Structures are given as C-alpha cells and as structure tokens.
Amino acid sequence: MREALAALRRGESVVLPTDTVYGLCCDAATREPTERLYALKRRALSQPSALLAASVDDLLAAVPELDAERVRTGPFTLILQNPAQRFPWICGDTPEKIGVRVPDLPPPAASVVAELGVVVATSANLHGGPDPASPDDLPPELRALVVVDVGPLPGTPSTVVDLTGDEPRVLREGAVAWPDGEVR
C-alpha cells in the first residue's frame, strides 16, 4: 500500500484492484499524471476516464456540485453533469460532463484511494485491450508499474450509465444491470 501511495504522489500510474477489474490509476489533482497515464495506455486525451473515490463523501468533496441523489456505489461508472467543469483533463471532449465511480474497493485499494480522496481510473489495459481480471492479464508495459495484487477479480467491467439527460442511458452493459443492480 505504501509503495502505491508513494508512486501516486510522485505523479506515476499504478494498478489497483476494483470490484470489477484491475484499474490503471493516477493522482487526479493535476493534468500531468493523467497525460502520462493516457500515453502509457495509448489512449487519446479526447476520450474520458472516470474519477474514482473510496466513498461518496470523498467524491462530493472533490466535486461538490454533483447531484448526490444520483450517485450510486458499486460496479457503476456514472456520467453526471459537471457544472464547474472540474477535472477537465479526464473529461475528454465533454468537460461539462464527468464520469465518476465509487466502487466497493478491496481494503488495500480503498486505503490508497481514500488517502488521496480521488484518483483517475480506467481499466488496466492498453487502449482497446481486454479488461484484466488478474495481474497475470496485464500487458507487459503495465506489469512494470506498482501493482496492488488481491488475486482474481470478477473480470466484467462496470456498467456505464449516462445520467445527464432526462432519462438514464446505458452506454455499456457491465457487471450489473441498471437500475436494479442485479449481478450479471
């Protein structure tokens, strides 16, 4: 845990377990760590990532304008209105929207993320690659990073739901169904 936290504070990317797949994470406080994460992942900066928090309180401390009633915990990535356009470096081409996630993190990852408040998170793969259910599934380029290993994870990514319109819109079916939370 200390090694991962130290790497994040140095602006480096690390691999953390979530409740679904292993995630590639970096400090969210400034643009530079995110730019390095995107370069490592081979992902265009025009594509959004998610802001991941260990608790709803930590998420709301980072983005107080969020509609707390719309935030759900668990294996969901929610796209919400971002009226103050916070963290524009993770929002891709849509700074008025922000992806957020409050997963049920395994204890070592929860402690690391809680220490920073929020981190940038995306699946720990190269752009377009398979979602890693274990550290053995990581591409070689990411195995050299600090990896918090808790063994195998379910392996199905989070369900992505856009809540910025009049009706929720599922952008990616994932680990659970929307809105009932039934595991797939």
In round numbers, the mean pLDDT is 95
Distance between the termini: 31 Å
Number of E-state strands = 9
The amount of beta strand, in percent, is 15-25%
Note the overall shape.
globular
Largest beta sheet: strand ordering:
7-1-2-6-3-5-4-8-9
Q: Helical proportion?
A: 10-25%
Written account of the structure:
With 184 residues, this protein is α/β, with parallel strands linked by helices. It has one domain (2-172): DHBP synthase (Alpha-Beta Complex). The protein is built from 5 helices and 9 strands, in the order αββαβαββαβαβββ. It has helices spanning 2-9, 31-41, 56-62, 107-116, 140-143; strands at 14-17, 22-27, 50-53, 76-81, 97-101, 118-123, 146-147, 159-162, 169-172. A 9-stranded mixed sheet has the order 7-1-2-6-3-5-4-8-9, with helices on both faces. A hairpin with a 4-residue loop joins strand 1 and strand 2. The relative contact order is 0.24. The model has no long low-confidence stretch (mean pLDDT 95).
Structure described in brief:
The chain is an alpha/beta fold. The chain has a single domain (2-172), classed as DHBP synthase (Alpha-Beta Complex), CATH 3.90.870.
Features:
single chain, DHBP synthase, 184 residues, 9 strands, nine-stranded mixed beta sheet, alpha/beta
Map the helices and strands.
Blueprint: H1 2-9, E1 14-17, E2 22-27, H2 31-41, E3 50-53, H3 56-62, E4 76-81, E5 97-101, H4 107-116, E6 118-123, H5 140-143, E7 146-147, E8 159-162, E9 169-172
Parallel strand pairs: 1-7, 3-5, 4-8
Antiparallel strand pairs: 1-2, 2-6, 3-6, 4-5, 8-9
Helix pairs in contact: 1-4
